[in-house]
Amino acid sequence: MLRFPAAVLLIISLSVASAALFSEPITRAAGAVIFDDSPGIGAPPTSLGSHMLTPFAADSRPTFDDVTTVPGPTGDLGLSPAANHRRIGDGWATWSHGYTGDVYFVSGVSVLLTLPPATGAFYFYAEPNQFGTFTFEAIADDGTTSGPIAVLGSSGAQFFGFYVEEGSDAMIVAISVTTDDSSGFAVGEFGIAELVPEPDAINFERRTARTAPRAIDLSGGAVAARANRERAALPPAAQIVAPSTGIRIAPPNTGDGGLVSHDPESAMGFSSMALVLFGTVAGVGLFGSILFRRVP
Fold first, then answer.
1. Going from the N-terminus, what domains does the chain have, and what CATH number goes with each?
2. How many CA atoms does the CB half-sphere of 115 hold within 13 Å?
3. Distance between CA 133 and CA 127 in Å, rounded?
4. Contact at 8 Å (CB) between 233 and 211?
5. Got the DSSP string for 75-107?
6. Whole-angstrom Cα distance, residue 84 to residue 91?
7. Considering the entire predicted model, what is its pTM?
8. Which site from 16, 29, 131, 154 is most exposed, i.e. has the minimal number of CB atoms within 10 Å?
């Protein structure tokens, strides 16, 4: 059985470990979605947690049309089931804090709000159809809940806000809204914020724009430049293509997974061949020096 010197085994082990290290995606610790109803029936805030909010623009579509989406600053908000487009004073009588914009009437007791991708914060207001007091509950897709909140149907539209904890890789995907007013309710006055990459993530993206090492094709002698913008650049190294086996010995930053080829055993066989060749040359040289040494 072929034995490797300890130094060679150490180099191979470090290379494999380095490849595994740099092939893993960068992740951040998961955090929770947080609920906030502190504005009550007052005007919406400009931020939730560390997220700066953008209100939805006015909906230019005709009132009394059934809609399944609402255009927003970061993408469409989905409504399921469809809701009927109204405005305060045009199909809906009251709201709160002087708002006079668009609302969406749901004829049942629940609606699912599906948010645009990468949503870090979102708020809405809700008000029952009847002028009495009814209970509402909003639940985010991760299970975070508002709990039961009493909402008055006459100028009592209530704020519901959800946001992702700072430094988290979580996002808000959907929110279900339910009420015990069997005659329906309205949701509206939406605001939203996209997730903002942290400085470390931004620096990592900048590093990925660097150019990776060149590939050296020993079978034809041609040098092919190879750009790799999907991984962070590490210290330059060569990628060697063996002419007989087609095996590539690639550094971790080339995106090939380090010392990985078509088959790991083939890669090890190529290394063994190189070591055997080196040992043979060294042995011949040593034998020649002994054979032709002059005897005094």
1. 6-25+210-291 (no CATH), 33-194 (2.60.120)
2. 24
3. 9
4. yes
5. EEEEEEEEEEEEEETBEE---STT--SEEEEES
6. 9
7. 0.59
8. 29
